[in-house]
Every structure is written in structure tokens, then in C-alpha cells.
Amino acid sequence: MVTLPHEAEPDAFNPWLRVTSLIEEAGHLLGLDEGMITRIVTPERILEVAVPVRMDNGEIHMFPGWRIQHDSSRGPGKGGIRFHPSVSVDEIAALSADMSIKCAVVNIPYGGAKGGVKVDPSLLSHAELERLTRRYAFAIAPMIGPDRDIPAPDINTDPQVMSWIMDTVSMLRGHNLPGVVTGKPLAIGGTLGHAGATSLGVTICTVALLNRLGRPPEGERVVIQGYGKVGAPLVKLLSQRGMKVVGLADVHGAIHVPEGIDYEKMSAHFDEAKSIMGYPGGEEVHAEELFALPSDIAIPAALGGVITEEVASSMSATMMVEAANGPTTGEGAAVLASRNVPVVPDVLANAGGVVASYFEWAQDLQGFMWEPELFHQRLEKTMHDAFDAVWIRHEQLGVPLRDTALVVGVERIAEATELRGLFP
Ligand code: GLU
After folding, report:
1. Where in the sequence is the domain holding 315, given as residue range(s)?
2. Is 92 in the pocket of ligand 1 (CB under 6 A)?
3. How far is 165 from 179, CA to CA, in rounded Å?
4. Please, which of 96, 292, 372, 413 could form a disulfide with 192 given CB 3.0 to 4.6 Å?
5. In this structure, are strands 283-285 and 253-256 parallel, antiparallel, or unpaired?
6. pTM, two decimal places
């Protein structure tokens, strides 16, 4: 068993313990020996950094940060960087392991990594955010690179933050290095299609599951938690496929719109109000009630650990698609399994983002940008192939989709690890 410094309260949801138990279960289902399971679970490299930032008022504030490379048997580390007050070493370790599994499930040549800084970026000015980003990029620079570990956006980080990281590392190395991060703006080696790719992947998985269940998408009622980088495009993509988004939540609260949200009106409202609250015709409801609203499909698209035993027990939807990373606790997953609610797990459902990152990185390495059609065609094929591979295995094994996805991912990592052998 791998031990990390556990910051969480003993009873609080610990994402690291959750993901390690999932990998261990998958390893046992595959009949792997304990040594191999421990090798796969254990992060390869954990870097903890202190990020000093001179604030606009002249004071110096310190922020802790991490970059963790979980597994590199299938390729360089890949995974986002998040800026959030709840960031901890356990959370980043868990998310790095999720990335190893995710990249293996969609069969792209990467291992898993993740980074983060414990900070509330909403309290920083633009200039403070830039200084924090550059100092953090400098601190993790020895560990990252196009053939080593490639960061990307995650919660509260965006193409601007990626630009600063790309610039900082390029300055340090003395030459332009667009392939060191993905999710960059188009002008400096980003790719058309990266923005919204996670949401497109979630949509593909939602429609694929509906197809497998023999349910036409038209009229299916959806509730979505989150109206950010992933949630906002989802409202549009699902509506365009005939589904009705009847419940929506953001950091300010939740609304119920039984006739379905008009995505254009919501987008216009949000641009003005900077919140979904106050959307014309939306009935305000308690945020905790969102998943209990009458609905068919539940999509958590915000933070982790939100689908607890209680939320799962009162969930109205009869299927769930995880757009967020790690949204479901072990107890929540057990309740959904006992209620026969199929769940497309995060490592499959939200993999569209990292697949888009892979395409961006491949274009940067080649110095040759693709037509948008090629990008979308390849993204759709990769997601469909991954969904089908997991579904077919799910029917063979007869275990929930989450456990099946873990089996598919762990099996591919184990194969690479076995083939490469143990150095020295
Ligand atoms: N942050 C995204 C994820 O959790 C994307 C990671 C990446 O593109 O490297 O999958």
C-alpha cells in the first residue's frame, strides 16, 4: 500500500485512497500479481514546490504547489494543472493516476501526470496570476518537456496560463517549445477544436450509452452541475442533439427549468450576469437538490467527490456521465451500482480533452497544423473506439462500466510495464 501525506480529515472523502482501491480491484480482476499492482499504483515522481509571489501591494505570499508523474510506461506524463484552494498532494496524486488510466483507456501514447497550486485565483489580479504561473512553471521546469511531461489546462487554468508556462519554459531552455504544454491559444501552437473537446467527448459518450440502452436522445432530461469550461458547451451540444437541460448549477446556486434551457439565452444571460442565477424562467432550487430534480441523465461537470451516498440515493436520473474528474465517492458508486444506474466513468467520459491535447502536441512536434475536419474526425473516432472497447468488455465481464474502464486501462499499463521490464 502506498502512503502519501494525508491532509484530509480521517472521515473526509480522500480521492487518493479511492483511486488506489479502484486500480487494485482492477488488478485483482485481471489476476495481476501484487508486485505489479503496487508498481502501477505508486506515483513515479512527486515534486512539491513553494511558489513565492510578490502581490500588487508589495507583500510576498507563499503558495504550495505540486507536479506528480504517476506512470510513464506508455509515454510521457500528461495531465492538467489546477489552481484551487482545495488542492492537496492527495488530490493531485489521485488525479495523476486518473490520467494514467484515462490515456490508456483512449489508447493514446501517454502516461499520467497532474499539477496544481493551492490558491484561490479569484483573489489574484491578472499580474499576480501571471507571476504565480511563471514562478510555478519555473519550479516544475526541470520535470516537464514535450518528451517528459506535458501539462494542460484544468480547473481555473486556461490558454493564457498555458501561454505563460510555454513562454517561461521556452525562455529557460533558450528556444521555442510549443509542445511543452497543450491547450494553448492558436497563435502559439494551439489547435482548433481543443476548446470544447472535453464537452464533445462527454456528448459522444452520452449518446453512445443512450444508443446501447435503446433510448433515443430526443427529449431526454439532463441535469448538469457546473457551467464552466466543460458544462457551458455541454448545454449547447446536448440541446443540439435533442436533449433538454432541465437543471443546472454553478458556484452561485442551482436552477430548475422543466421545459429545458435555451442555450443561446443562457449564454447571453451568463455573459451579463456572470452567473446562471436569474436566468429568465428558471426556478431557484437548493444546490443539494440538483440531482434529485426529475431527470433522466445526470452529469457532474465541476469538482470531485460530489456524488456521495446521499446524493446517489436521491438521484432521479437513470444514467450518469462523469464530465468532472473523480466526482463519485466509493459509497456513491456502490449506491448507483445497486440501483443499476449505468455510469460512464470520468476516465472515459471526459477524455476528449486529453485526446485533443494529444492532437495538439502531435501537430506541434511536426510543426504542421491539421484541418479542423481531420481533428474532429479523429477525435470522434478515438472516443467511439474507446467507448465501444469498454462496452464490449463490460458485457463480457458483467461488472459496472467504471470497473471495466479501469480493467481496460490497467491491463494496457501492465502490458507496457511487463514488456519494458524492470530497470536496471
Ligand atoms: N485537464 C484535462 C483532464 O483532466 C486535460 C488534461 C490534458 O489535456 O492533458 O483530462
Report:
1. 197-349
2. no
3. 11
4. 372
5. antiparallel
6. 0.96
